[in-house]
């Protein structure tokens, strides 16, 4: 099978990407090639893939509406170039803005909705030539007008994560630093408990993200609560494995948190807000705690001593394997080709 995958125009696709969509596309590309399928990926400069890469220009240091429009045009041109040279059986989109560069070509098209469905323009749910796919049951349940969408739950590279022999004394927040991910909430929790907290992740070049960091995150940083910036695969795995617990105070409805899955694969309990699909991933009282407020998150930190690291790892192995995800996508491709 020949699969042409299309990433979001503004961020490169790599195993180390901060964004979930980019990580999932990277894993899917690897899963396809490992199973003998041919994979081609249209993605931003600096992407690293197992299959063939069609590069589009890297995003500048500041992302504006004009930059987005230019990136979408470049992506559309790259998709046409790829289809001219690559005998694609399936065209698979992963970007929030996929509707801006759908080619008028007669082949099955699939779009994975990695973000909350409310973030997509209404007209995408009426597209007749693109099949939409969700990444969690919770997300699928929010589809408009009772639309029934297929679900392929996210997966992770389980071999990359291992429980640590000795756990540290710090709390961990990991992800993109932006308002909806709640890094400032994690910092306030750590201050309330007088606990160590490591904040790890990038500030992407959006004005609202920089404002959030400078106004709400930076003032709460000190010697015990530090921001270490983006981290690579090895450092991320170490941080997850040695953390006392991982805090996920998301304010947006999470569609399928890779950070929660990675933490559990590392044997580390997760304390998460009841946001979107997080209760599908974290079983409260078993692999962590699902809470409804900042105060409840603070109270749950001491309770993580009751959570079994081995049970966290077992649940991750049973449920979050990227190989399962890749096979489910292949099965969906075959259904679309039938």
How is this structure best described in words?
The protein is α/β, with parallel strands linked by helices. It folds into two domains: 2-155 and 321-337, 3-Layer(aba) Sandwich (Rossmann fold); 158-319, Rossmann fold (3-Layer(aba) Sandwich), CATH 3.40.50.2000. The protein is 36% helix and 16% strand. It is built from eleven helices and twelve strands. The protein has helices spanning 20-34, 65-85, 137-140, 183-193, 207-217, 233-242, 258-265, 278-281, 294-303, 309-319, 322-337, and strands at 2-6, 38-44, 52-56, 90-93, 109-112, 131-133, 171-174, 197-200, 225-229, 245-248, 270-273, 288-291. The strands form two sheets. The protein has a six-stranded parallel beta sheet, sandwiched between helices. Strands 9-8-7-10-11-12 form a six-stranded parallel beta sheet, sandwiched between helices. Helix 7 links the parallel strand 10 and strand 11. Helix 4 (183-193) packs across helix 9. The longest helix is centred in the N-terminal third of the chain and has 21 residues, at 65-85. The radius of gyration is 20 Å and the shape is globular. The mean pLDDT is 96.
């Amino acid at each position: 099978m020949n699969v042409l995958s299309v990433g979001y125009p503004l961020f490169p696709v790599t195993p180390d990407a901060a964004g979930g969509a980019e990580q999932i596309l990277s894993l899917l590309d690897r899963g396809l090639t490992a199973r003998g399928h041919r994979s081609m990926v249209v993605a931003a400069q600096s992407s690293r893939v197992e299959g063939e890469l069609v590069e589009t220009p890297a995003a500048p240091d500041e992302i504006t509406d004009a930059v987005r429009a230019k990136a979408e045009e470049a992506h559309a041109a790259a998709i046409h170039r790829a289809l001219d040279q690559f005998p694609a059986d399936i065209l698979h989109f992963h970007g929030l803005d996929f509707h801006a560069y759908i080619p008028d070509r007669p082949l099955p098209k699939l779009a994975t909705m990695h973000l909350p469905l409310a973030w997509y323009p209404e007209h995408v749910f009426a597209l007749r030539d693109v099949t939409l796919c969700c990444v969690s049951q919770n997300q699928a349940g929010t589809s408009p007008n009772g639309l029934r969408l297929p679900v392929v739950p996210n997966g992770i590279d389980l071999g990359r994560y291992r429980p640590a022999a000795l756990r540290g004394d710090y709390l961990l927040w990991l992800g993109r630093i932006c308002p909806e991910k709640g890094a400032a909430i994690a910092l306030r929790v750590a201050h309330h408990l007088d606990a160590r907290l490591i904040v790890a992740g990038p500030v992407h070049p959006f004005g609202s993200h920089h404002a959030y960091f400078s106004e709400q995150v930076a003032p709460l940083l000190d010697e015990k609560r530090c921001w270490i910036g983006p981290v690579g695969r090895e450092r991320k795995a170490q941080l997850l494995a040695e953390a006392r617990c991982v805090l996920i105070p998301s304010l947006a409805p999470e569609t399928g948190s890779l950070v929660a899955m990675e933490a559990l694969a590392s044997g580390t309990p997760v304390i998460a807000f009841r946001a979107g699909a997080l209760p599908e991933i974290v079983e409260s009282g078993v692999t962590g705690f699902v809470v409804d407020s900042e105060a409840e998150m603070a109270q749950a930190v001491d309770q993580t001593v009751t959570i079994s690291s081995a049970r966290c790892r077992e649940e991750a192995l049973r449920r979050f394997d990227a190989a399962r995800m890749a096979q489910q996508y292949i099965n969906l491709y075959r259904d679309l080709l039938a």
